[in-house]
Please model this.
Amino acid sequence: MIYLTADVFFYNFALILLESACGNKSDYKPNENVFLVNGCVLALIASILISHVSFTAYENIHFRDLNGEIDYSTNPEESIAISSLYLILLFFINLIGAIELYKRVNICTIKVTPQWIMVLKIQLQAYKIRFLGDYSFLIATLESFELINSKYDNSKSNGKSNIQNPDIPALIGACLYLVERIMLLYVSYQVYSHLVNECGDVIDSKYLEPNKLAILGNIIGVIANSVSLQSFIEIYKRNVDRPIFGR
Model:
């Protein structure tokens, strides 16, 4: 739920930028960077909580592995836990960049071109995809609770076949996460290029630091999401009677 709330802030940030570029004027124009900072704070908090859950899950399954209770590799769980640390780093870097953007005084106006509008539209669509990814993870978590409860509820034992496989929405969410992060990496690079091309003569390197941080953070995010997706696929193929979430 924290991630979904962060997504709302990210979406509003992208929407305000797009409306401003399209010339949509209003009496009150909020500072889009406020939404970005709030979204990064919430995403950082959520990523820390998810990392705690991932490492707890890995420790539990690793303990079972040491006791000889399982006969399969625990590498996917370990990879998911490690990738969760990279996601914390991603949102920490993004938060630093967002704060710098908030404090930065605009000394250059980017020329609005069809290409620039396209970049902003891609950014907006990326945050829509992220929302769908987080919603898929929420569904996976809820279905995991139902699956776990069914194991201890004899009255549902006969209807176990009707319980959804929570690994499927988790895989969908992981795929959407990777697509979203690749799109944002493209956007961050295009924004940096626009600033250099349009304002290179009037700004110094410090002015571009938030944009460099965005590129760095998105590269880390692509790596982390790629590792997570591959790990989720391995767990799904392992076809054990336990979900990715709630294990």
Observations:
- The chain has a mean pLDDT of 84.
